[in-house]
Amino acid sequence: MITHKNSTKIVLTEANLLVPQVKSKRLASLAKQGLKTDHFDKSRDLTDGNETIESAQEISVLLKNAVLTINRRIDEIKKRYPSGKQDKLFAIRYGDLEKLKQRRLKEIFELLDIEKPPKFKLIAELDYFGIRVSHTD
């Protein structure tokens, strides 16, 4: 191994996106593409291939319904506030909408007081975009 006296070692500890995923359609579409492959990879432990496909489809349908439900609830909440201040008042009460969408669905449903559908456990650890979240800050 060759070492240089004047070389500098750079360690990158954290890499944030320059553009939040919520504001970029391209990042959102890439996340959705990753979601499709993640479902198949994570559900490989099932024995039958047909069960794997059915499980991935079920998760996809549950996620779409959850996103629609969240959007409806956010619209309902914002309609209660005066026009022109809806976004600001929502952010004061529930936090920034972009950060809210990056939380686990379980936390979003509790925060917005939404009733959980049957089989919610299949998607509880995913965020609004379908990406698995291990923890939320």
Biggest pleated sheet: none
SSE run: HHHHH
> Helices and strands: which structural class?
mainly alpha
Q: Count helical runs.
A: 5
Q: Uncertain regions: pLDDT < 50 for 5+ in a row?
A: 38-47
Which short descriptors sum up this protein?
51% helix; mainly alpha; single chain
What would you note in describing this structure?
The protein has 137 residues and is mainly alpha-helical. 51% of the residues lie in helices and 0% in strands. It is built from five helices and no strands. It has helices at 25-42, 49-79, 86-94, 97-101, 105-111. The radius of gyration is 19 Å and the shape is flat.
Present the secondary structure layout:
Elements: H1 25-42, H2 49-79, H3 86-94, H4 97-101, H5 105-111
